[in-house]
Amino acid sequence: DASKRRGRHVMSQEEIDALLVDLARHGKGVVRLKGGDPYVLGRGGEEAAACRAADVAVEVVPGITSAIAVPAAAGIPVTHRGLSRGFSVITAHADLGVLPQRRDHTLILLMGVSRLRDSVASLLEAGSDPATPAAIIERGYHPDQRVTTTELRCLADVAARYGVTAPAVIVIGDVVTLSPYWADRVVEEARPANPAA
Predict the structure, then answer these.
(1) Number of C-beta neighbours around residue 41 at 10 A
(2) d(CA 88, CA 39)
(3) 117 and 154 in contact (C-beta within 8 Å)?
């Protein structure tokens, strides 16, 4: 087990890289199985580079990134004619203010639950429409998947009220209105994401 969850890393990335190389050098057929696409906000590129640097042959079998698959599980296409011509996939630890702040450009936040309040404040400060549709899909494609929909201005409060937890994919943009879950959106009890606002 070399899994990584927020605040709980079984192994450091350097230990994982060394283990892959060590096992391969001992004649083992090594499979590094990762959920989703290992090259989308994952460490697949680093692990492949470490193996290649040690003259270990690597074959990458691409997966389907959770950034696209999980919204699909909630009935949300990341692009849709007339609603969205593009999308950005970003970790919530990045500068969200540099992204397009239009409702017709879908924003997909990965690893964003713990920083959700800061992310919402950053997007609003950068000029995002507070009424932009938003969704949080927890445990995508699992039997206990949960989808919560609301408006951007309410997102952090609604997530806190419903006890949203990782793993979750956050989708912001007009495409969220295509989800059958949009009919059950939560917008009451909203307060500004930025207390100074």
Answers:
(1) 18
(2) 15
(3) no
CA distance 147 to 134: 10
Span 26-57, pLDDT tens digits: 999 988 887 778 888 788 899 999 999 999 99
Rounded distance between C-alpha atoms, residue 53 and residue 167, angstroms: 32
177: its two tokens: 């209105």
Q: How many CB atoms lie within 10 A of CB 163?
A: 8
SS3 state at 187: coil
DSSP tag of 182: G
For residues 34 and 2, what is the distance between their CA atoms, to the nearest angstrom?
Answer: 10
**Nearest alpha-carbon partner for 46 in 67, 27, 36, 60:** 60
Note whether 140 and 74 are within 8 A (CB). Answer: yes
**HEC per residue, 38-97:** CCCCCCHHHHHHHHHHCCCCCCCCCCCCHHHHHHHHCCCCCCECCCECEEEEEECCCCHH
> 38 is written with which tokens?
């290992």
C-alpha radius of gyration, the chain, whole number: 19
- Residue located via tokens 């400060």: 125
Q: What digits encode the pLDDT tens for the residues 63-94? A: 889 999 999 999 999 999 999 999 999 988 88
117 secondary structure, DSSP code: H
Spatial distance between the Cα atoms of 159 and 125, rounded to a whole number of angstroms: 20
